[in-house]
Each structure stands twice: as C-alpha cells, then as structure tokens.
Amino acid sequence: MNDPQLAEGPVEFLSGLYISFWLPGLVLGAALAIKLPSIVKLWRDPLLRAVGGLLLLACMVFVFAAPGTIAWTNRVVGVPNIAAPWVYSLITALSASWLLLVVHWRGGGHTDRRERTRRATRWVVSVYATVVVALWVLFALADVPVEQIEDLDTYYASTPFMREEILLYLIVHTVACLITARLIWTWIRTEGLDGWLRWGLRFLSVGYVTNLAFSAAKFTAIVARWTGHDLDWLNTNVAPSAACIGATMVAVGVIVPHAGQYLQERLLVRRRRRGLRPLARLLRPVAGRHEPFVPRAAPEIRLIRRETYIRDALLQLSRHLDDDLRRRAHAAALALGAAPDRARALAVAVTILDAVESGRRVPDGDDDAAEPDTTYLLREIHAVSGVLRRPDEIKAVRARAAVPAESMSAHE
Q1: In 75-106, which positions are buried (b, 16+ CB within 10 angstroms) versus exposed (e)?
Q2: Most C-beta atoms within 10 A of its C-beta, which of 8, 191, 238, 251?
Q3: Are the C-beta atoms of 372 and 352 separated by less than 8 Å?
Q4: Taking each helix axis from N to C terminus, what angle separates 46-64 and 239-275, rounded to the nearest 10 degrees?
Q5: How far is Cα 28 from Cα 22, in angstroms, rounded to an integer?
Q6: Which residue ranges in the chain fall short of pLDDT 70?
Q7: What pTM did the predictor assign?
C-alpha cells in the first residue's frame, strides 16, 4: 500500500516503463545463430529463407533503433534525423517479412498452392518496397533540422511530409500485424496441427498482438499532439517496451516448432537408450565384455550401439533358450492378467533370465539342431527390457511357469 509507483497511479507507472532494446536483440541474435546452419545448408527452401530474413531484420531493427545507435547514425552520415527513414524502412521490411513467413509456412504442397504463394510473395514485396521508397522521398521533402533521438514521432507529428512519413510506416506496420495475426488465429484452429507448431503459433500470435499495442501507443501519442495534449510517454516508454516484448515472442514462436521437435526427438532417443539398460546389464555375462561407450558420441549413435550390443548377445544366447519354458511363461503371464503383447515380452524375459542364470549350453551332439526363430526376440528388445524393470511381475510369472505342464495346459 505504500509503494510510491502504485500511489502515483497506473499512468505514472507506465510512463516509467522501459525495456532495453538490447534484450530482444540478444534473443533474436541467439535465434538466428540457432537457425543459421539450417538456413545456409537449405538455402533453396523459401520457408527457411523467410525465417532467416525475419530474424535478421528484427535484429537490425533493435540494433539501429537503440538511442545510442540512432545518435551514431546521425553523426556518421552528417544529416539530422537520417536514422528515422532508415529505422522506418527496417520496420517496414520486418512487417513484410512477417507476412512472407506466414505465406511460405502455409504454402507449398500442391501446384496451385505454390502458385498462390508465389503471387502473394510478389504482391507483398512490391507493395512494401514501394512504401520504403516513399519513406525516403517524404523524408527528403520534410524539414526536420532538430535532432530527436527518442521522441521524433511526436516531436514532428505535425510537420508536413514528416507527418505523412510517420503515419505511413505505422499504417503498414499495423496492417501487417492485423493480417498476420488473423492468418495465425485461423491456422491455430486447424485440426491436426503438430503440438509444437501450435505452441509456436500461439507465441507468434502474442507477439503480433503486442506489436499492435506498439502501434496503438504511437497513434495515441501522435493524436494527442494534434489535439494539444502531451502523452509523449506512450511514444518514448510504452511503445518501445511493447515492441521489445512482441519481438521476443515472435522469436520464440519461430524457434519453438523446430527446437521443440528437435529436443523431443533427442529426449525420445535418450529415453529409449535408458529403457534398454536392464536388458544390456542382464546380457553382460553372455557378451563377455562391457558395453562400448564413447562419451562424445551422438545420442543416436549410443542407442544404435546399445541395440547392437544386445542383439549380438541375444544371438549367442538364442540356441540356449528353453522354448518349452517360454510357452509355459507365456501361458502363466496370460493367466495372471497380462495383455497379449506384454505376456509375450514377459515370457521372453523369463526365458532369457533362466538361460543366463543357469549358464545353459547346447547339449553334445545337438549341433545340427534347428536354428530357433529369433524374429520376435531381436525385434522387441525394448518391450523385453521394459518388463525387466518389474521384478515382482517377473517373479510371479516364473513361479507360475514352474508348475508342471499338465496343470498349465488349460491356459495355453
């Protein structure tokens, strides 16, 4: 209750709000660094080019829109406020890249859709390129001798030609936000979307709605100037902060579908490898050696090596397995209420345990015995390893399978 900011009211609190331009710049730069190898490798993919263009332009916007960079640009070029049309052009190009990203994200597939994508791309590029040219023409016609670093939009809100330039870039920015947000909300409601893609679209939608708040704050501050009021804090504090939050959300929305899918696949590979640990440990006496391990190997390679290690050991053990025990164990598992697939895995696990523990070898004179069918044994190693994690269940099946065959016949 004694917080001075709360006591001053929400307007005073918002007027003091400010988020550094370098924060979204770092997030966008990190996103670009993550995507850059894929973009370079698959440069012909229009979607990846659109992603790369969006991230690059967004980074440039926040680098060149920072107050320090604006002052530096004006000083280097030697023209007061020359940074304004440059930053406005970058914002306009960024707005176009939003539209192009959604166009290419939804494009592809059938020939007619690809043709529509090309037409939409040409339309977006031509319209926004024309706007960029108009921004520079208007700046050349305007008289803006007093340098303004942070509040140029409101300071020159009534200046001929500069007024039109400011309104032009804000209008095309707002239109791009509205169109992109509408397309994304329509897309989110589509059935059958991948979960990661849906989350990415949600972040994008939040980003574009926040960018609309940027435009709304700018327009409000400009209209206030026209009517003789002072709401410049909307332009100098709220609008930049909204732009920073919006850009960060857009960057996250671009990364999430790709990074999420990648991490999910990596997690699945690691989980499958960990799931094979019980069977690999059980078969170590059969293999006669420890499982090979290379610390720097990729998770996929480690999984393949563990699967190969297990299958090699099972092939050595396969002729020592008691097929009669397997049948009894399968019937016992079914009798105990296991589902058919789990009963099959339990039966194989019990048979492997018995062979490993007893150290059974092929009887003399039995070298010409028919080779056992190892199809299921080698294919379902993950299921077999999974049931080994339940020793109580294995123990119950083994105990029931030890009952004489005559009493088990009813279950087969």
Answers
A1: eeeeeebbbbbbbbbbbbbbbbbbbbbbbbbb
A2: 251
A3: no
A4: 130
A5: 10
A6: 1-21, 106-112, 359-373, 403-412
A7: 0.70
